[in-house]
Amino acid sequence: MSLLFNGRSRGAQLSQISILQRIQMFFLSHLRQALGSLGEMWRAGAASLMTIGVLGLSITLPSTLYILVKNAEQINAGWDQASEISLFLKAETSKQHIDQLLTRINSWPEVNKVTYIPADDALNEFKTLSGFGDAIAYLDKNPLPPVVLVAPTEKHAGPAAARLLLDKLRNEREVDIGKLDLEWLQRLDAILTVAKELVTMIALLLFLAVVLIIGNTIRLNILSKKDEILVMKLVGATDAFIQRPFMYTGFWYGLLGGLLAWFTVICLLWWMSSSVEAVSALYQKQFTLTGVDFSTLLIMLSTSVVLGLVGSMISVKRHVSAIEPK
Questions:
Q1: Which end of the chain has fewer CB atoms at under 10 Å, N or C?
Q2: How far is Cα 232 from Cα 230, in angstroms, rounded to an integer?
């Protein structure tokens, strides 16, 4: 009984060792073929570098545009509140009626602060800021109306609430024109929507180009090794075993192209950072370009590797299976 038990335990150990060896050989085989395909790319030299360069630059353009659009969305989100509403009063409004208007508006719960700018002060400010002081001196009368600046509370500073407050202010009899400083942000948001659609279209076209380039490169590689593939099939090699090195070649093209694209995007954003800082200084805002963090790197590498594998898979499935010994 004990001999039978010992025999079974030894058989189980041998079976377990065999399974472990199979797993080990599986990974060693993949590693050997992956390194072998990388070595062939290295020996190809200039041709591999040109292919990697085309792939990297093809991924760089949509990646850069995407990061710029995301940064613009951050600006839009940061300024997505109305700072103040400008009310241009009717020119014939008397000082008494203006004081009554200011008192009424100040009593509203939606209003945080009210600032009154008389017409003469508005003209003097315009002379200082516009540089047309000498020309304005020839005017017979002041063409600018009195202005009331209304700052909503934080609760009513959102786009919808601020627009309701604007409509309420426009109903006042002393108000001629009411303007909300959030309108230009709504135009910016519409432009960003169009920009995102353009980036998506450009990305799809360039990604398709990447797949075609990799597929054509792998096809040429397969045709150059046609005799080698025929010999391998004659000795019993499976299609999967023959296809594997070409799949790894597509993987390496995608990985190296993605790294090149990421490095190029960093260089482009660094080159543009000084211009962005100069523009943000004009608006008295502190803003720096972001979006080249580790998560962006992972997304770019994942995308480029998937494109490389798709392109190589399309090519090997079609051309390796077509090579058969007669």
A1: C
A2: 5
- Token match 């050997």: residue? 32
**Average pLDDT of the chain, as a whole number:** 79
pTM as predicted:
0.63
Q: Which two tokens stand for residue 238?
A: 């499976």
Q: Which two tokens stand for residue 246?
A: 């070409």
**What's the sign of the alpha-carbon dihedral 142, 144, 145, 151?**
negative
C-alpha separations of 323 from 227, 229, 231, 311, 316 in Å = 9, 7, 11, 19, 10
CA distance 105 to 123: 24
The first and second tokens of residue 304, run together, are 């480029």
Is the distance from CB of 299 to CB of 208 less than 8 angstroms?
no
C-alpha–C-alpha distance, residues 130 and 133, integer Å: 8
Please count the other Cβ atoms lying within 10 Å of the Cβ belonging to residue 167.
Answer: 11
CA 62 to chain CA centroid, Å, is 8
Phi, psi (deg, nearest 5) at residue 23: -65, -40
Q: State whether residue 48 is helix, strand or coil.
A: helix
Tallying the residues shown for the chain, one arrives at 326
